[in-house]
Amino acid sequence: MPQPILLFFLLWFTNGVTSQQFREAPQFYNSPDCPSLPDHGDDNNACSDHAVHVAMTLDGAYLRGSMAAILSVLQHSTCPQNVDFHFVVTSSADTTRLRHTIANSFPYLRFHFYCLDDVAVSGLISTSIRAALDCSLNYARNYLANLLPLCVRRVVYLDSDIVLVDDIAKLAATPLGDDSVLAAPEYCNANFTYYFTPTFWSNPSLSLTFEGRKACYFNTGVMVIDLERWRAGDYTTRIEEWMELQKRMRIYELGSLPPFLLVFAGNIAPVDHRWNQHGLGGDNFRGLCRDLHPGPVSLLHWSGKGKPWARLDANRPCPLDALWAPYDLLQTPFALDS
């Protein structure tokens, strides 16, 4: 093995996630009928009405998934040069390294970085049934209206464990009606009571929160958010009030999802289930493989305990992990050697 490759190989297994290297992705171009946006050098390029705004979080643990998600968005977009990415990182993250990684793999990408004060957010977080749900970055979706420029009126929020196989502009154009703040696929066959504790349901002043609302479960990993309506209604404060109550009374067990259900369930715009084929990570406790939901597919979501990159590395993939693999940009020492 050549000496530089051997050195990289040793660093790879010594440093783990911190030494991940990613290949450069292909450049994708707009179709001829796509509207043009300002050049990258324009300070106002985050404010174009013709851009599709996408918000994601970035951290070392899920960076491999984020890179695959970005590639999938660009590859299936009709106007990939009009997709504007807004990346949220924590104040404790190695922002320089993350920015360098994105710029190297996607040198033509339109992107912006925003810093979430993880110390302030962590003070509002209660422990949940999975430690991975307790990190402050998991709550970044609560603060998009505060972090992104005021001129960004609508954003598509995506988790890092997804791949798109359809044009994100279709999702971004979801009608929100006259007053809905966000849109997401609903799953009304799910047992809604499961998401809250007996303490919540036995207290009428709390359970009556859902009075007159057809409250259904929705997955917050894929949402279209009207940031203007969010700001006008001060929904960040509403969510934080429930989080503060949770610290005192323990009214739910599952991370950042229940406050969203408390504030929005029953009042969201519908999105076809094809845009969030979720649960592909498997059972939260035993890691069992899952099948696709019936119907067409526009977005695959490996929510749950198991992540496709971890299962592929362990040589124990679920069948659907093969659909994620083509978007993996990780540069392995074996690939370098070849």
UniProtKB/TrEMBL annotation:
Lipid bilayer topology: Single-pass type II membrane protein
SUPFAM superfamilies (UniProt xref): Nucleotide-diphospho-sugar transferases
Keywords in alphabetical order: Glycoprotein, Glycosyltransferase, Membrane, Signal, Signal-anchor, Transferase, Transmembrane, Transmembrane helix
Record's subcellular location: Endomembrane system
Class in the EC hierarchy, top level: transferase
Pathway annotation from the record: Glycan metabolism; pectin biosynthesis
One GO cellular component term: Golgi apparatus
Major localization class: membrane
Keyword Transferase recorded: yes
Domain of life of the organism encoding this protein: Eukaryota
Gene3D superfamilies with a match to the protein in the record: Spore Coat Polysaccharide Biosynthesis Protein SpsA, Chain A
The EC number(s) this enzyme carries: 2.4.1.-
GO MF annotations in UniProt: glycosyltransferase activity
Signal sequence segment: 1-19
Family note: Belongs to the glycosyltransferase 8 family.
Protein name: Hexosyltransferase
Organism this protein belongs to: Tetracentron sinense
